[in-house]
Amino acid sequence: MICAITAVGSPACRKKQQTSNEPPATAKEPDSAPGTAxxxxxxxxxxxxxxxxxxxxxxxxxxxxxxxxxxxFRHNSGAFxxxxxxxxxxxxxxxxxxxxxxxxxxxxxxxxxxxGHQRRRxxxxxxxxxxxxxxxxxxxxxxxxxxxxxLGCAVGDYDNDGNVDIFITCLGPDYLFRNRGNGTFExxxxxxxxxxxxxxxxxxxxxxxxxxxxxxxxxxxVEWSIEKDLFCTLDGQNKSYCTPESYRGQSSRLYRNLGNGTFExxxxxxxxxxxxxxxxGVAVLDYDRDGWPDLFVANDTQPNKLxxxxxxxxxxxxxxxxxxxxxxxxxxxxGMGVDAADYDGSGYPSIIVGNFSNEMLGLYxxxxxxxxxxxxxxxxxxxxxxxxxxxxxxFYDYDLDGRQDIFTANGHVADDIxxxxxxxxxxxxxxxxxxxxxxxxxxxxxxxxxxxxRPLVARGAAYGDFDNDGDLDLLITTNNGPAYLWRxxxxxxxxxxxxxxVGTRSNRDGIGAKITIHTTDGSRxxxxxxxxxxxxxxxxxxxxxxxxxxxxxxxxxxRWPSGKVEKIENLAANxxxxxxxxxxxxxxxxxxxxxxxxxxxx
Length: 602
Description:
The chain is 4% helix and 34% strand. The protein is mainly beta and 602 residues long. It has 2 domains: 56-499, 7 Propeller (Methylamine Dehydrogenase, Chain H), CATH 2.130.10; 500-601, no CATH class. It has a 4-stranded antiparallel sheet with strand order 1-30-29-28. Strands 2-3-4-5 form a 4-stranded antiparallel sheet, with no helix packed on it. The protein has a 4-stranded antiparallel sheet with strand order 6-7-8-9.
């Protein structure tokens, strides 16, 4: 009620709502598909478990292929017993095609030891996809062996040269690595003027002013340093990790790409300066469908922020008016990971937010007219995520049935939490909620294979089709522990179509392009090419649509950030379509359906 009244009194947060030329969503539902801090993964669940009926495994199983794929990464938080706040944060990951060979490579972010307690050197890790289900660590030859207290990453071609570049957020100076196109990267941070020395977490590339150059939004957290570290305790005697409420916040930053290899910090000019933030996650979305990319920022123990893009280089903060600043009781939660997608065919992007244990996931449904309603408290998702502490979360279609499902990466921040809250554990199981349509979800986590029954201290997560078999695999990082690669086996029993966008007037990656498809079964779906989302991580830039049993896509429409609209008709299922702005279809690449070569390494 308060949110609705506020929105009526806030015309700045409701601009152009009636001017959208977007068609209403179709009503047709697509057919259903068939069917660790040095903690060794146990074989049975010991973390908080959702209440769900026992059932036989689904036709789709996730398989842990980390070891056979050659992923040997281990995150180093630097922990040595002093319990510094950053040690709880973990780090992110990304799927990216850094060498343009059509196969998704893997980037894993690392932290490092604290001054005076150095035991080993730690670096981010870049793994090149060998196209046979295995990866090779190419960090050294890629010139990425740089020590940093890394936290997150964002991937995008900021200089429009056709090669994806890497931005890494850190405690202390961030890093921008330019992809030279020859398998190596160059540290251009100082030259590019993106040297933010705050406590940075998630980041996202997007073209907020639609000038054809990717700009950069960087989330900043709190004012912390070794000198400012405080003594906090759970039991009144022993030191525990402090909460962010113990520290002052820091403003996130917006860097405008000047198109000459340098950036300008326009945070204040854009009306985005907010030193109270404590930001951990960012999603780029056009929530009011006016054609300009907006920002949703998840804050930890502070109100979330929804920044509406005014189209003139400035933003207006609308979270309170929109109903996404707090929970249903008007209380700020510990927002972490975030994503946005149209999960119910309404035509508007809705928002999910990972929160602390005893807070449940936020599922903000976009009602249109600038208003959202949190549906988690009255849904299966609310009860199932109440005890979980969720960092990464995102929408994706795991079974390719045409509906956006939800994945959450869970794990607590306090390794001694069970001593004061017996129902909550440090390591927790991950969760997947299958979209049943009509705003209903089913928690099928424990039916998806052994990986979903192994508690982890998970932090970052991303999805991508690393084996090019059509369905979407998962990459997960853990705090002070290993990274995991989970292969989706059986998800491609349904049909799909994928799009890669190549901008000309728009940014080269086509980030911000909106793709809408109509299939032969009468359904309609849309997605945008995006950077950011999740927690400190980034999923692949390729857009995957599950189309169920439909045999083809009757039409696909692309709305480029430049404003250009192109339509393609009669596309066969099970292929990757590369679209070039102004030229239409650049290439068609059929993809395997069923067990691919990469699955034979078992």
